[in-house]
TrEMBL record:
<feature type="transmembrane region" description="Helical">
    <location>
        <begin position="31"/>
        <end position="50"/>
    </location>
</feature>
<comment type="similarity">
    <text>Belongs to the MTFP1 family.</text>
</comment>
<keyword id="KW-1133">Transmembrane helix</keyword>
<dbReference type="Pfam" id="PF10558">
    <property type="entry name" value="MTP18"/>
</dbReference>
<keyword id="KW-0472">Membrane</keyword>
<protein>
    <recommendedName>
        <fullName>Mitochondrial fission process protein 1</fullName>
    </recommendedName>
</protein>
<feature type="transmembrane region" description="Helical">
    <location>
        <begin position="123"/>
        <end position="141"/>
    </location>
</feature>
<keyword id="KW-0812">Transmembrane</keyword>
<dbReference type="InterPro" id="IPR019560">
    <property type="entry name" value="Mitochondrial_18_kDa_protein"/>
</dbReference>
Length: 158
């Protein structure tokens, strides 16, 4: 009689942190080449697509783990897949990526006022601000995207 839901490898394990790779890339943008920032987005998108395929496959095969907790009919598979893709894209890539990018850009610009701080130190401070903000922004963004999905997509597809 175990009421505990099964472990979701994409959301309940360390694999979830792969979705934050682009935030780390954005935080390091002032000191690394742009190709590495783009690579971090590739890692994050791979995570998003992996989770999306997982949720669609679970709905298809077992009829569980999806949006409506129903059988694996094609419409339910599409709903679950769409839900995972939209939620993950917004919560793991788009909103946090823009947030960290802008936070680092604005903090880097603000630090240029302090000419006594050498330029490399200002860049490292900007990276530190970006990295420190990641744990702070994740939960509000996740809750905000869930609220948005509950009031848009999830209402429309039921």
């Amino acid at each position: 009689m175990n009421d505990k839901p099964p472990c979701d490898i994409f959301r309940d394990t360390w694999v979830r942190y792969l979705g934050y790779a682009n935030e780390v890339g954005e935080a390091f943008r002032p000191i690394i080449p742009g190709c590495l920032v783009r690579f971090s987005y590739g890692i994050a998108f791979s995570y998003v697509f992996g989770d999306t395929m997982d949720k669609g496959f679970k709905m298809f095969v077992k009829g569980c783990g999806g949006l409506l907790q129903e059988d694996g009919r094609p419409s339910n598979v599409m709903k679950a897949t769409g839900d995972a893709l939209i939620w993950q894209t917004l919560a793991s890539i788009v909103i946090p990526g823009i947030t960290i990018n802008r936070l680092c850009a604005y903090s880097g610009r603000a630090l240029t006022k302090y000419k006594r701080i050498p330029s490399p130190a200002r860049a490292l401070l900007t990276v530190g601000i970006g990295l420190a903000s990641i744990p702070i922004i994740i939960v509000p963004i996740d809750h905000g995207v869930t609220f948005l999905m509950d009031h848009t997509y999830r209402k429309w597809v039921t």
